[in-house]
């Protein structure tokens, strides 16, 4: 018999990873490029504002909640390691936890913290923006690919898990 709770966790992880991947995708494909069209002081001010407002319960629920669900799914995959879905669960969890959460903590947040200290009336704002924008965007590309990869892996795991015991897909 299929465990509906596990299916709900898998769907939650797939949707959460996709949602966060979409957010990162937006930054990688057009938001940072739009900021580059602004004077450096405006680009820095806009990113500083985003970095403050993103710290809210809804974002944390999606970003960290997906991480917590991923950790729970790792335990489920270990217990059910002979199931075909287990490999996709482990792959999805690794992609999300390492490529999204760990990269955010180790790369993007320190860059955000450094940018928060930039005074908008200071000299050299173009250098400040360029030294932030390049590395931040490269790491954001990693987060985008990792999150969307996790969403796909969780989607496949959901399909495989829902097919257990001859259940209707």
Q: Could you explain how this protein is built, in words?
A:
The structure is a single chain. The chain has five helices and no strands. By secondary structure, it is mostly helical. It has one domain. Helix content is 83%, strand content 0%. The longest helix is centred in the last third of the chain and has 38 residues. α1 packs across α3, α1 packs antiparallel against α5 and α4 runs antiparallel to α5.
SSE blueprint:
Blueprint: H1 4-36, H2 40-53, H3 57-79, H4 84-116, H5 125-162
Helix content: over 70%
Q: Which regions have little confidence, pLDDT < 50, spanning 5+ residues?
A: none
The overall pLDDT, averaged over residues, is 94
Strand content: under 5%
Task: Report on the biggest sheet.
Answer: none
């Amino acid at each position: 018999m299929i465990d509906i709770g596990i299916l709900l966790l898998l769907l939650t992880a797939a949707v959460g990873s996709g949602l966060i991947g979409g957010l990162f995708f937006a930054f990688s494909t057009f938001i940072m490029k739009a900021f580059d069209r602004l004077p450096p002081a405006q680009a820095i001010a806009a990113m500083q504002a985003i970095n403050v407002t993103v710290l809210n319960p809804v974002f944390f629920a999606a970003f960290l909640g997906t991480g917590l669900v991923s950790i729970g799914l790792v335990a489920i995959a270990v217990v059910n390691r002979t199931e075909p879905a287990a490999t996709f669960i482990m792959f999805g969890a690794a992609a999300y936890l390492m490529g999204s959460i760990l990269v955010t903590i180790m790369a993007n947040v320190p860059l955000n913290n450094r940018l928060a200290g930039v005074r908008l009336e200071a000299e050299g704002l173009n250098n400040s923006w360029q030294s932030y924008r390049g590395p931040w965007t490269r790491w954001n590309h990693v987060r985008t690919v990792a999150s969307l990869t996790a969403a796909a892996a969780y989607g496949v795991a959901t399909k495989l898990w829902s097919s257990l015991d001859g259940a209707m897909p």
